[in-house]
Amino acid sequence: MKPRILIIGAAVIDTVIEVERLPQTGEDIYGKLVDTVVGGCGYNVQRVVAQFDQEVDFLCPIGTGQYADVILKEFKQKQIPPLVRDLRIDNGWNISFVEAGGERTFLSLPGVEVHWISDWFKSFRLDDYRLIYVSGYELEGTSGEVIVSELEHIQDAAQTKIVFDPGPRAAYLDEETLSRLFALQPVVHCNKEELFTLTNVSDVTEGVTALFERTKTTVIVTLGADGCAYYSGAEIVNTPSEKVAVVDTIGAGDSHTGAFIAGQSLGLSTAESCLLANKVSAAVVATATGNFEGIEADKLVAEVK
Question: Where does the record place the Carbohydrate kinase PfkB domain (predicted)?
Answer without folding.
Answer: 4-287
